[in-house]
Design goal:
Rossmann fold, 8-stranded mixed sheet, globular
């Protein structure tokens, strides 16, 4: 007897249009990141009900409201612990974490380090504009020395965090840097990060056109150089990646700095999850085991 087959509907860019339009400043680099994420999900044909987008607080952290996937807008700096819980509860989901340099490398830096150490299988996209945009222009953890802001009117005296070097040192198994104005390149990096089995980190230069007049699109364009254009570069070489992470000036490397695939992700290393995603397992405790537990406590 013939059986009707349902042909899966191809994933389209329109599937991911959020219920509200982005309200970032006109020209903000975050628009380019949103477009690149949508393109990557379409090119990988990942349906929206298989994606969860998690964020903290900040301009870029409004991201989950602008893309139609499962999503949570969490507390300042706390997106990665929430995302870890989601991945451990249902590791079949593609988990994206979005935020900014203040959210991720300031108050959230401790969570950043431990999520990398644990090799949680997710993609962390940081829209790095080198300033606090939502609170109207204070120095951020990645602001350059000498930068004049609302909080440093005579120039920043603190050395900035180096996100790529920090990620390499903390054990991230995929480390990359993109530029929001290079859509094709950023989309490819995001696809690689999603497909990577482990913690994937992409630091994205996403210029703030309102409050950062130093690190503009015009400033970045002649400086960013793709690692992929160097035929001798090996992204499996940790030492070479660390050397490249130290370059900043007339040349700033972007691209895939490092990737290793020989380490299990957190959920792969957890024996309880070998039977499949937790949400699909029978988690009811048998009555005799529950009773013995209560007896032990009483």
């Amino acid at each position: 007897m013939a059986t009707d087959l349902v042909t899966p509907t191809a994933v389209a860019r329109t599937d991911f249009k959020g219920k509200v339009d982005p309200d970032w400043c006109p020209g903000c680099g975050d628009y380019g990141v949103l477009a690149a994420v949508e393109k990557a999900l379409v090119e990988l044909q990942i349906p929206k009900h298989e994606v969860a987008t998690i964020s903290g607080i900040g301009c870029s952290s409004n991201f989950p409201g602008f893309i139609d996937t499962y999503g949570i807008h969490t507390l300042h700096g706390r997106s990665l612990p929430v995302a870890t819980g989601i991945k451990m509860a249902n590791h079949a989901l593609t988990v994206l974490v979005t935020g900014g340099d203040g959210d991720g490398f300031g108050i959230g830096c401790g969570h950043f380090v431990h999520a990398m150490r644990r090799n949680v299988d997710l993609l962390y996209l940081v829209m790095d504009n080198q300033i606090y945009g939502l609170t109207t222009g204070q120095t951020s953890p990645t602001s350059r020395v000498g930068m004049k802001t609302k909080s440093t009117p005579f120039g920043n005296i603190e050395r900035p965090v180096n996100p790529v070097a920090l990620a390499l040192a903390a054990g991230a198994t995929f480390v990359a840097r993109g530029f929001s104005a290079d859509q094709k390149h950023l989309t490819e990096l995001i696809k690689l990060g999603i497909e990577h089995k482990g913690f994937a980190f992409i630091d994205v230069f996403s210029p703030c056109v309102t409050y950062n007049h130093d690190n503009t699109f015009q400033w970045f364009h002649p400086r960013v150089k793709k690692l992929e254009d160097n035929p001798g570069y090996d992204p499996t070489d940790w030492d070479a990646a660390m050397d490249k992470s130290q370059i900043w000036g007339d040349e700033i490397p972007i691209g895939r700095f490092f990737e290793r695939t020989d380490l299990p992700s957190l959920h792969e290393a957890e024996p309880v999850l070998k039977a499949g995603p937790l949400v699909k397992q029978e988690i009811r405790i048998p009555a005799d085991i529950a009773r013995s537990f209560f007896d032990e406590l009483m």
